[in-house]
Amino acid sequence: MLTKLLIANRGEIAVRIIRTARQLGYRTVAVYSEADRDALHVLAADEAVAIGPAPVAASYLNMEAVIDAAKKTGADAIHPGYGFLSENARFAAACKRAGLTFVGPPEHAIELMGSKRRSKIAMKAAGVPVVPGFENADASDDELIAAADSIGYPLMIKASAGGGGRGMRLVHRGQTLAEEIQRARSEARNAFGDGELILEKAVIEPRHIEIQVFADQHGNAVYLGERDCSIQRRHQKVVEESPSPFVTPDLRRAMGEAAVKATLACQYEGAGTVEFLVDKNRNFYFLEMNTRLQVEHPVTELVTGQDLVAWQLAVAEGRPLPLTQDEIQLRGHAIEVRLYAEDPAHGFTPQTGPLHLFQPAVTEGIRIDTGVQSGDTVTPFYDPMLAKVIAFGQCRDDARRRLLRALTDTVIFGVTTNRYFLSRIIADPVFGAGEATTAFLDQGFANDPSMRPTDVSILDLVLAGTILYQGETTGANWSNSLATAVPLRLAIDGAGFEVQVQCNGQSIQVRHGDDVHAITLVELTGHHLCFIDKGVRHVCQYQREANRLYLQPFGRSLCVTDHTHQPAVASGVTGSGRLQASMDGSIIEVRVAAGDPVQHGDTLVILEAMKMEHPIKADRNGRVSQLHATKGDQVKRHQVLVELAIEDDVAQNPPSQEIET
Ligand code: MV4
To answer: For 91, which DSSP code?
Structure first.
């Protein structure tokens, strides 16, 4: 019997494993790197051990440090989660040598499935369908070229030691084959230290459908339905669901039975996933077996009603599988998306920085697995997945509707995420019809607005202007009718916006160039803006951090930077020429007179506020056209002090506008 489990992982999966282990009464030990001192998985565990510096090689991949942590705390088992040491046969062996139970399959199964070539041979022998191809040992380039002729084109060259699409290439014609083989070989040598290659006939626009399997130490193995993971980007899964909208009961049974054969053939133990490619005619082919608990396991948990971590611990203790095949029933539908700190508008670049607010929208049928909380920092050392959002419903559309709502209502302020991208996929009609294949993101979805810089609307500017204007004025100004227009300089997703905000009672009007729009303000609480637009009342949550304003109007994420009080210092970048007081204060020095020429960056006026001097600088080259400041004046924040003009470009300095009623 096991008593104390060490989790050799971090983030959401460590938290997830700790949750079940605690529920079942096991004591839990977290390990953490220097970057994860205050991470959620550390707080969730009973005990925690520091295992090294932030880089993974020095901490989460450091076998000796992890095993030492288990010894030090008296843990009797190690759960590796996914990634890191989870599919490392040497680590499984090292645990055993140290007298620790490795919660995972035996070394020999990890090792076999780590080789595409040997696993394919083993699967073929076990009667599992594989993609027709060539997988001889020690194949020379010439043998591969000869084999290609009988396989036909298009074909795939795959590195035997690769996985998840790494070291894989598609070849359309025989003319380029020799060269592609040479390239693939040298890439595989560099990436995996092993140049072994196999060839496969290419399956066109396949679906990626995988079977969850489980085996115990007594020779029992079962399958727990499938997961459709066809929606991927650069071999990273984006959406996963169970059951697959493409799988019929007959196909499920055939794939399930093939997966169980695969499992028994390699004397497997514990949780495993058998990946298949499925073509448009519902032929399926073994691709690889993952010898770990997968990221997307929750969709299987929701449709089977089972806790797969509990199953793993039962099997690791030598107990029989909790259910027989006949007792495993699929009920309802589950869809998962991976919420990442990444920027879809800029090539999905990983994002780092403070997570000011992370507010998952947990409602009926929604599960959120996460390892972060508000106030955390997303560091560059680890995978930037923030959470998995998983929806369950009676049918696929119930799950889909709930997921879309959860994504729309989840509030994330601080880092840019793929939240809007995910909600666009879930709302897409092709996905809605269950017709997405592995080609989906590169085909119909490729021009989606969620992958382009924010298209800022006048309403966005009104909302931002309303919140920023309020922050700039005292309560008294709100009731003033026809208060003078306040100019704001905003930046959103790299684009600049000069707007005029004008308030007339509860009506807030924003002008941007020729665009004018007004809303009726209902309430502004510091965190929520309630407004009426065209007769419809809405609420929008927001947060201000320094000169940034975060908000999520109508499902998109906006980060608005307020540059109103910062002179544009970069050469070539020019401002409005309307220089305002940056806060309430008094004028202690005026360095220019009307008509004086000024250079971008010159100090024109000095304001004293809060016992400090604040220089007001020219935000462009020009000439002082209006001077509204005199030494000794008391001025209010936003009051215009100096106006600059360029004789040949007066249009850049528009006159202030009166509100339209
Ligand atoms: C293939 C294939 C077509 N034919 N093999 C990509 C990841 C790796 N696990 C296997 N992959 C593929 N192997 C043959 N013989 C197409 C893919 C593939 C793919 C597979 C699953 C999900 C997304 C994919 C995207 C592009 C290519």
So the answer is: H
